[in-house]
Specification:
379 residues, mainly alpha, Growth Hormone, Chain: A, 82% helix, globular
């Protein structure tokens, strides 16, 4: 990294953002369970977190692309996420909590896609080094999820929202230190956004991302509860979550080398095949710890390789003034719509059939994504 790139400030944002994700995603389901919600209600509440990603990134992405003030938007969104999250401590009942979760996640989910665009702007021609900045998010996730697991065994689930609030504050504070990066003059007119979206390869790519994250719905909403049904402690659950992200960090470290050797399409397809295998292993062999360990190691491919390849394709498809909305669309279609549908369906499959079936369905969805990418994402 050269001195012109604010490496540690960019990395610090990712660290706190994904540390908050490490506190929220693995432990929010068990926290909601202690508040008296069943699997169906938990799936619905987790779907609220995902659903705001459908709207929020696109609203803020449109504003950012028209104003060019991405970091100002990131700072405002980060501060409002802190203020609205505080409502968790005061509301009771399903609808009150759903409203608060919709509010804080609307702002929280708005900040990351715009920060991704800021990071790529700062990196410029060194975009292959994105993974070296993003890996600090994975390190933050590991520190959060591993440390919090043992803490919750001792102090109980009531600590979860307290930790999340502190980490949200960290996101806002770091955002104040990151400089704005004003886009230069674009070398060509990228045309209309609808013109980009009409391309079959772009539609196939977004469809693949939707299916991939829908398949992850059971993992993000119910993996901790699933392990609990097999007698694993919160500490062991935290270790398994952390192991997955350690593998993810390893993928990010070598990603720039992989991208020189393999195409983004090849890496996308490989990650989808790995996802189908991973969910099937969790569905069938959860009582075997060593198999769960192997499944978590696959996170290096199912998230690390997939996300880096997807970011590369977003940058390829959505150029110039469309970059902010391209990042927003990727986030909203995959982590938003895909994650929401996956969480919602998983809750009903969990209640209606069995916990193991939720991961069997996830494996089938990953296979559907694999076929979509193989058939239609451009070669």
């Amino acid at each position: 990294m050269t001195e012109s790139i604010p490496y540690w400030r960019l990395s610090g944002f990712y660290f706190f953002y994904f540390a908050s994700l490490g506190a929220l995603v693995p432990y929010w389901g068990p926290y909601l369970q202690t508040r008296g919600f069943d699997a169906t209600r938990i799936g619905e509440l987790m779907a609220v977190l995902m659903a705001t990603k459908i709207v929020a990134p696109n609203v803020w992405g449109w504003i950012a692309d028209h104003t060019g003030r991405r970091m100002q938007i990131v700072r405002i969104a980060s501060l409002l996420s802190v203020l609205t999250f505080a409502g968790v401590f005061y509301v009771k009942g399903f609808w009150g909590l759903a409203l608060v979760m919709a509010a804080f996640s609307f702002f929280w989910n708005a900040s990351l896609p715009q920060f991704e665009a800021v990071t790529l702007d700062h990196l410029g021609e060194r975009s292959e080094r994105y993974s070296h900045v993003r890996l600090w998010g994975s390190i933050g996730f590991i520190a959060s999820v591993a440390g919090l697991g043992a803490t919750l065994d001792h102090y109980g689930m009531a600590r979860v929202p307290q930790v999340v609030l502190v980490l949200y504050g960290g996101i806002w504070l770091v955002s104040l230190t990151v400089p704005e990066r004003v886009d230069g003059v674009h070398p060509h007119d990228p045309g209309s956004l609808m013109g980009v979206l009409r391309q079959p390869r772009v539609l196939a790519f977004l469809g693949t991302c939707f299916l991939m994250q829908a398949g992850h719905g059971a993992y993000y909403a119910f993996y901790s509860l699933y392990l609990e049904t097999y007698g694993y402690s919160n500490a062991m659950t935290g270790v398994l979550w952390a192991l997955g992200v350690v593998a993810e960090v390893a993928a990010f470290v070598v990603m720039h080398r992989l991208m020189r050797r393999y195409s983004a399409r090849q890496m996308l397809i490989a990650s989808l095949g790995a996802a189908a295998v991973r969910w099937l292993l969790i569905a069938l062999f959860a009582e075997w710890l060593w198999i769960l360990v192997a499944a978590q190691v696959l996170h290096a491919v199912t998230f690390g390789v997939f996300h880096a390849a997807a970011i590369h394709l977003v940058q390829t498809y959505f150029q110039g003034r469309h970059q902010g909305r391209g990042q927003a669309l990727y986030s909203s279609v995959s982590f938003g719509a895909g994650g929401a549908v996956g969480s919602l369906v998983s809750g009903h499959v969990w209640s209606g059939l069995s916990p193991a079936w939720t991961y069997g369905v996830s494996s089938a969805v990953a296979l559907a994504a694999l076929f979509t990418a193989w058939r239609w994402v451009d070669r």
